[in-house]
Write a structure and sequence with these properties.
The complex is a heterodimer of chains A (470) and B (304).
Chain A (H helix, E strand, L loop, with lengths): L1 H21 L1 H7 L9 H19 L10 E6 L8 H15 L2 E6 L5 H10 L6 E4 L1 H9 L13 H6 L2 H6 L10 E7 L1 E5 H7 L14 H15 L4 E4 L6 H11 L17 H12 L3 E4 L4 H9 L5 E5 L1 H5 L17 E4 L12 E8 L5 H15 L4 H8 L2 E2 L3 E2 L2 E2 L8 H6 L16 H16 L4 H17 L1
Parallel strand pairs in A: 1-2, 1-3, 6-7
Antiparallel strand pairs in A: 3-10, 4-10, 4-11, 5-8, 5-9, 12-13
Chain B lengths: L1 H45 L18 H8 L1 H32 L4 H16 L2 H12 L5 H8 L16 H13 L1 H12 L3 H9 L4 H12 L1 H16 L3 H6 L9 H11 L6 H29 L1
Helix pairs in contact in B: 3-7, 3-8, 3-11, 3-13, 4-8, 9-10, 11-14, 13-14
The chains are: A alpha/beta (470), B mainly alpha (304).
C-alpha cells in the first residue's frame, strides 16, 4: 500500500514537472511581455492570446500561401494604442481576408526592451507599428526586418510624400517601413494663463509661430506674474525628447545631426547659446524629475504654462484624458505653437509611423503580414487606419480613395496644417540613435545640476558620436 | 545469518527512503538547477565573451576584457559607489529599526501586536509599483505633499526637486527602500524575541540585571540567527535595488545602481557591441560583492 502510494506520488510529481516544462513553449511568447511591470494589462492580454496565436500562426490556409494568423505589436500611436479601436480595424481585416490578427500593445517606457527580448528569443512579432528610427535605423539596419520594396510600385511612390518615404528607406535602398501617417511635433501654451500674465501679445495665433525674443519676453512676463516655474526642460528620461531637441535647436538655429545623418552636432555655438539662455531664465527649470509624459500631465493640470512635448494628437485629446479638445483639466484654453526661433520659421521634428515586418523565416506569415499592411496603408480602409492614429496621411490617395480631405470636418486638424510646412529634417535615422538618447537627457540633467554648458555638450556629443560609430 | 538478512532489509529500507526523499526533492531541484544553477553558469561564461543580441550563439571569448573595461567605466564605478551607499546605509538602519520596533511591540497583547505587524508588513505585500507611485506623488516637485508641508511649516522657502536633484534623489530612494524593507525583519524579530527563554531573562532580572544587560547578555545571543538572516537578506535586497530606480529616476539624478545599469546595458544599449557580455560581467561582480559581504556577516555573527 505504502509502495503504491509512493509510486503514485512520484508519478504525480513527474507529471507536474513535465506539465510545467511543457508550458515553456507558449511562455516563450509571453517572455517579452513580462519584462516591464508597467505593462501588466497588455501582458495579460498577450498571455491569454499567445497559445492561440502560436497555434494559429503555424497553420497555413488550405490552398493559399498566406498564414491564417499573424501577430501585431503596436506602440500607442494615437488610438492605435486603444484596444477597442484596433479590434475594430483588425476585425474588418479578418472579415475580408480570413487572416486573424493577434495584437499586443506596447508602451514607450519599455516597448523597445520587449521587442529586443523577443528578437533575442526568436519570438519577434510578424508586424510592428512604429517609426523609422526603430524599424529602419535599428531593427532594419541589424537585419531583422523584411524589405518591403516589392509592395511599392511607381504609383505608390508617387502617392506617398517624398520625405516620409525617404525616412523609411535604408541607405541601401531597402524599405523597412511602409509609412501610414505623419505629423510635426510642436509645443503648446496655456492661452488663458498667457492672457492673465499679459504674455499673449508675444504669440502670433494666426501662424502659430513666435520668435526667440518673443519667447524670452513671454517667459519673463509669466514668471513675473506667477513667480514660479512656468516651463520645464524635462530630462528624467528619453520619453518626449523630441521636444527638448527641437526647443534647443530652434532657439538660435542649431542642429542635432549633420545633413548626411552620420554624426551628431550638438556642440555648436548656436546650441551652446540656446542652452545657456534657457539655463539663465528664472521661469524655466531643467527638471530631472519629469519626462515628456510627466510634463504633459503638469501642463494639462495647469501647473506649467507651456509644454514642449506636444503634437496634434495631444491637441485633440490633451493628456489622453477625454476631457475636451484643446482644454486643460480646468477648462483653460490650449494653443499649439511652433517652437520659437530667431525668424519665427522653425524646423519642426517630424513624426512618421507605419508598419514593418520582422523576418521570422516563414514565407506564409510574411505574405499574410504584407496583406495586412496593404489593407491598412493602401486600400479604402486606410481612411480608418489614419483616423485611428490621429495624424495626417503620408499619401494623397490609396487605391483610388482620396485621403487629402479626411480631416475636412475637423477644425483643429485643419488649423494644425499650418505647421506642416515647417517640418524639418528627419534625422532620427542617424546611427547610434537609441544610445545617444540617453546621452542627451543625461546632458540636460548635468547642465541643470550646474555643469558648464560647453563642457557638457562636448562630453555628451562625444558619447553620442561614439554610439554612432559602434 | 539473521543479522545479514536484517542488515539487507535495513539497507533496502534506507534505499527506499532515500529514493522517496530524492523524489520529493526532484521538482525543486529541477527548478533550482534550471533557473538558478544553469543561468549562473551561463552568466559567468557570457561575462567572458562579447555576446550581444545581433550575433547568434554566445559570442567570441574575450577573456577578462569586460572586467577590465568595467574598471574604467565611469558610469559603472558611480553605480557601484551608489550601490554601496545604499547597502551601508540601508542594512544597519533597517536592522536596528526593526529590532527597536520589535522590542517595543512583541510583549503587547495579541490583537494589538497583530495590528502592528499588519501595519509594518503592508508595504512589503503591496506591489512595488503602487508603493512607488505613492512616493512619487509625495516627492512631486510641484504638487507633492512633502514640499507643501515643509513650506507650510516654514522649513523651506521654495520647492525642492526631491527626485530630480542629485543632492536628495539617492536619499529618497534609500528612504523608500527602508519603508519597504523593515516589514519582514520586524515580523521575524517579534517571533524571535517571543521565543527567547523567559526563565533566563527572569533569572537575570532577579540577579539584578538591568533591561539593557538582560537584552544584551540574554536576548541578543538568542536572536543572533535571526539577525544573521535579516542582515543577509537585507544586504542582498539592497544590492539588488532596481524597481525603485526604474520607476522613479531611471538611473538619473545620481541614482544609477549596478542592477539598473545591468538592465540598461543588456536591454537598452543594444547598439553597443558585446552588450550582453558586458552586462553579465557586471552581474558577476555584483554576485562576488554580495557573496563577500554575506560571508563576512556570517563570520562575524558566528564569532559573536
Amino acid at each position: 500500500m505504502k509502495k503504491l502510494l509512493a509510486m503514485l506520488l512520484i508519478g504525480a510529481m513527474t507529471i507536474s514537472t513535465v506539465a510545467c516544462g511543457g508550458s515553456d513553449a507558449p511562455a516563450a511568447e509571453e517572455t517579452p511581455a513580462e519584462t516591464g511591470a508597467a505593462q501588466e494589462a497588455p501582458a495579460e492580454t498577450a498571455e491569454e492570446e499567445a497559445p492561440a496565436a502560436e497555434e494559429a500562426a503555424t497553420e497555413t490556409e488550405a490552398g493559399g500561401d498566406a498564414a491564417s494568423a499573424i501577430t501585431l505589436w503596436t506602440y500607442p500611436i494615437g488610438k492605435w494604442g486603444d484596444e477597442a479601436t484596433v479590434k475594430g480595424l483588425t476585425d474588418a481585416f479578418t472579415a475580408q481576408t480570413g487572416i486573424a490578427v493577434n495584437v499586443e500593445f506596447l508602451a514607450y517606457a519599455d516597448g523597445d526592451d520587449k521587442v529586443n527580448t523577443a528578437i533575442t528569443a526568436g519570438q519577434a512579432p510578424d508586424v510592428i507599428m512604429e517609426g523609422p528610427e526603430r524599424l529602419v535605423a535599428n531593427w532594419g539596419a541589424n537585419g531583422y526586418m523584411v524589405d518591403l520594396s516589392d509592395m511599392l510600385d511607381d504609383t505608390d511612390k508617387s502617392e506617398i510624400q517624398a520625405a516620409p518615404l525617404t525616412a523609411c528607406t535604408a541607405p541601401g535602398g531597402e524599405i523597412y517601413e511602409y509609412p501610414l501617417v505623419m505629423t510635426a511635433h510642436c509645443m503648446a501654451v496655456n492661452l488663458d494663463a498667457f492672457k492673465e500674465a499679459g504674455a499673449d501679445q508675444y504669440l502670433d495665433l494666426e501662424t502659430h509661430t513666435w520668435t526667440t525674443d518673443d519667447f524670452i519676453k513671454a517667459v519673463e512676463a509669466l514668471y513675473a506674474h506667477y513667480n514660479d516655474t512656468v516651463a520645464a526642460v524635462y530630462c528624467a528620461g528619453q520619453g518626449g525628447d523630441q521636444g527638448t531637441r527641437a526647443l534647443v535647436n530652434n532657439l538660435y538655429g542649431g542642429s542635432y545631426t549633420d545633413a548626411d545623418h552620420t554624426a551628431y552636432t550638438w556642440n555648436s555655438p548656436e546650441n551652446v547659446k540656446a542652452l545657456e539662455q534657457l539655463k539663465s531664465m528664472d521661469g524655466i527649470a531643467f527638471d530631472a524629475s519629469l519626462a515628456g509624459g510627466d510634463e504633459i500631465v503638469k501642463f494639462y493640470q495647469g501647473i506649467l504654462k507651456m509644454a514642449f512635448c506636444w503634437n496634434i494628437a495631444q491637441q485633440l485629446d490633451p493628456n489622453s484624458a477625454g476631457t475636451g479638445s484643446g482644454l486643460t483639466v480646468t477648462g483653460q484654453e490650449i494653443e499649439f505653437m511652433s517652437f520659437p526661433s530667431q525668424t519665427g520659421e522653425s524646423q519642426l521634428q517630424g513624426g512618421i509611423w507605419g508598419f514593418g515586418i520582422f523576418d521570422n523565416g516563414d514565407a506564409a506569415r510574411i505574405e499574410a503580414s504584407k496583406q495586412f499592411i496593404k489593407y491598412m496603408a493602401d486600400s479604402a480602409a486606410t481612411v480608418d487606419a489614419v483616423k485611428a492614429a490621429n495624424y495626417f496621411a503620408v499619401r494623397s490617395t490609396a487605391e483610388g480613395t482620396d485621403l487629402t480631405g479626411i480631416w475636412a470636418d475637423n477644425e483643429i486638424m485643419n488649423e494644425y496644417q499650418v505647421l506642416m510646412p515647417q517640418l524639418g529634417d528627419y534625422y532620427q535615422v542617424t546611427p547610434g540613435w537609441a544610445g545617444q538618447r540617453t546621452a542627451w537627457w543625461t546632458m540636460l540633467q548635468q547642465i541643470g545640476s550646474g555643469m558648464d554648458v560647453t563642457e557638457a555638450l562636448t562630453q555628451y556629443e562625444g558619447e553620442a558620436n561614439a554610439a554612432a560609430a559602434e | 545469518m539473521s543479522k545479514q538478512v536484517s542488515q539487507k532489509r535495513s539497507r533496502a529500507l534506507q534505499r527506499r527512503e532515500d529514493i522517496a526523499g530524492y523524489s520529493f526533492m526532484l521538482p525543486s531541484l529541477l527548478f533550482f538547477v534550471g533557473f538558478v544553477v544553469i543561468p549562473m553558469v551561463i552568466c559567468i561564461w557570457l561575462s567572458l565573451t562579447n555576446s550581444n543580441m545581433h550575433t547568434k550563439g554566445g559570442g567570441d571569448f574575450i577573456g577578462l576584457m569586460n572586467f577590465i573595461n568595467l574598471a574604467k567605466d565611469k558610469v559603472f564605478l558611480d553605480a557601484l559607489k551608489n550601490t554601496f551607499v545604499i547597502v551601508f546605509v540601508s542594512v544597519p538602519t533597517v536592522t536596528a529599526f526593526s529590532l527597536w520596533v520589535a522590542s517595543a511591540i512583541y510583549k503587547l497583547k495579541m490583537p494589538v501586536l497583530s495590528a502592528f505587524r499588519c501595519i509594518f508588513y503592508l508595504p512589503v505585500v503591496t506591489g512595488s509599483v503602487a508603493v512607488t507611485v505613492v512616493w512619487k506623488w509625495i516627492f512631486d516637485n510641484y504638487t507633492g505633499i512633502l514640499n507643501s508641508v515643509l513650506k507650510a511649516t516654514g522649513t523651506i522657502d521654495s520647492n525642492i526637486n526631491w527626485l530630480g536633484d542629485e543632492k536628495y534623489a539617492l536619499w529618497c530612494i534609500i528612504l523608500i527602500l527602508f519603508t519597504t524593507s523593515v516589514g519582514q525583519p520586524i515580523v521575524l524579530y517579534v517571533s524571535a524575541l517571543g521565543n527567547v527563554d523567559a526563565s533566563l531573562v527572569e533569572a537575570a532580572e532577579v540577579d539584578g540585571a538591568t533591561d539593557l544587560q538582560a537584552f544584551w547578555k540574554i536576548k541578543w545571543p538568542q536572536i543572533m540567527p535571526t539577525t544573521l538572516y535579516i542582515l543577509v537578506i537585507t544586504t542582498i535586497n539592497s544590492f539588488q535595488c532596481f524597481a525603485l530606480i526604474q520607476l522613479l529616476t531611471q538611473g538619473g539624478s545620481g541614482t544609477q545602481t549596478v542592477m539598473y545599469y545591468i538592465y540598461y546595458t543588456a536591454f537598452k544599449l543594444t547598439e553597443q557591441s558585446g552588450h550582453f557580455g558586458y552586462a553579465n560581467a557586471m552581474g558577476v561582480i555584483l554576485a562576488i560583492f554580495i557573496g563577500i559581504l554575506s560571508a563576512v556577516q556570517m563570520r562575524l555573527a558566528k564569532e559573536k
